[in-house]
Amino acid sequence: MDSLPPSAGADFPGLRSAPHRHLCTDCGVSRMENPKACARACQFIAPDYPAAEARVHGRARDPARPDELHFGPFRAMWRARLTAPRPGAQWSGITTRLAERLLETGAVEAVLTMAPDPADRWRPVPVLVTRAEDLARCRGMRMGYAPLLALLEPARAAGHRRIGVIGIPCQVYALRALEVGLGFERIYVIGTPCSDNTTTENFHRFLDLLDGRPEEITYLEFRADFHVELRYAGGRRREIPFLKLPISRLPPDFFPMTCRSCVDYTNVLADITVGYMGGEGRQWILVRNARGEEILRLLEGEIELSHPRSRGSRAGPVKGFLENTRRAAGGLPLRRMPGWLRPLMGWLMPRLGPRGLEFARARVEMKAVESILHLERAEPARARRMIPAHVRALARPYGLAPHDGP
Ligand SMILES: Cc1cc2nc3c(=O)[nH]c(=O)nc-3n(C[C@H](O)[C@H](O)[C@H](O)COP(=O)(O)OP(=O)(O)OC[C@H]3O[C@@H](n4cnc5c(N)ncnc54)[C@H](O)[C@@H]3O)c2cc1C
Ligand code: SF4
Ligand code: SF4
Description:
With 406 residues, this protein is an alpha+beta fold. It contains 14 helices and 13 strands. It binds flavin-adenine dinucleotide and iron/sulfur cluster (SF4) (2 copies). Flavin-adenine dinucleotide (FAD) binds at residues 89-96, 113-114, 124, 138-144, 166, 168, 192-195, 197, 274-277, 283.
């Protein structure tokens, strides 16, 4: 099976072309001076999360802090939003604002992140940004893969000694694996969670199914209240309950094997993770180490922080997800529910389902279950190397034993 996503490996002006790799999200390492570095940098080969977490955060996950099993090491966890949300941001814009502050305060000389392709707003293109005002155009989420880390060598060649990187988990794992030998004095890592990514081409097919005028959609988010939110050019908004999404009309390989089987949802190796899953309509921040604290302090006076809440129970939804994923046998998990019941369930789920931290735990457990089932089914040998013990432990209460397949 070839799991190189079609848009991974695409040409990017000024960057080397990407040699073929099996499971690969084109994080950029294969385009560096030494493409063989993939062997020790790749999340999809033989990741060692306990060692990496100890190296980056100075300690392993603490069993006395149960949420660390789900979310990775953290010093503080917040529900948050910018007092003045930024236009074009995916949520309130904390991620790009943190990077702006790193540049404004001189903590870094450059930031590596993604901008939209001028010809396609949904296609990510890696950029090296040196002026805070240029980060505004990078706001927002794009679906797809682009070789962020291939800009590390140009950044070093340009003389930058301290840099910031905004990355998704598979990029951050590789960055941390290579960090020591890169020759930077300091790297500040701002991570976002990531799940269910796919190629930009596939994503366009999804947009085509959602709306007769897909070119007018400017924003899409899978929200924690079980709705997809769409925004359109001109200001219109639409909310679609998950249960009413046209999932059954997507091809079974809509999500590449990489994103069905990656093992880090919450970006456990970032200095600070900025997402939304535990935020109940606001953002969700995990400050993981001293550098993460330093980064968050840069927003003093412009960010509202409160303690995350937790309601409901995740056990039922995770069990249902496991059964559906097993039944789908490698395809997309479809809910077997009569059409008339879907609107009612769409109304009930945000009210009765897990919310806040319990929603985040549910999603992390679902991801663990999905990765184990897909890898054990498609690549059992790789599953043994790739799935960390803490991910197996999350799936165990649902009866998924080691090396369990569908
Ligand atoms: C494919 C994908 C799936 C995600 N799934 C979840 C999820 O399930 N749960 C959750 O809590 N959060 C998820 N996120 C993160 C979430 O969408 C927001 O980015 C995050 O909450 C930060 O919001 P913000 O307003 O602070 O970001 P903004 O200030 O708008 O900044 C967003 C940053 O993300 C970068 N970015 C956008 N697209 C990509 C991409 N394809 N690859 C790499 N970097 C990119 C931008 O360049 C920008 O720097 C996902 C992100 C992506 C890219
Ligand atoms: S390290 Fe990056 S470029 Fe190399 S195989 Fe893994 S995802 Fe692909
Ligand atoms: S879902 Fe996982 S493998 Fe796919 S892009 Fe996101 S972090 Fe990378």
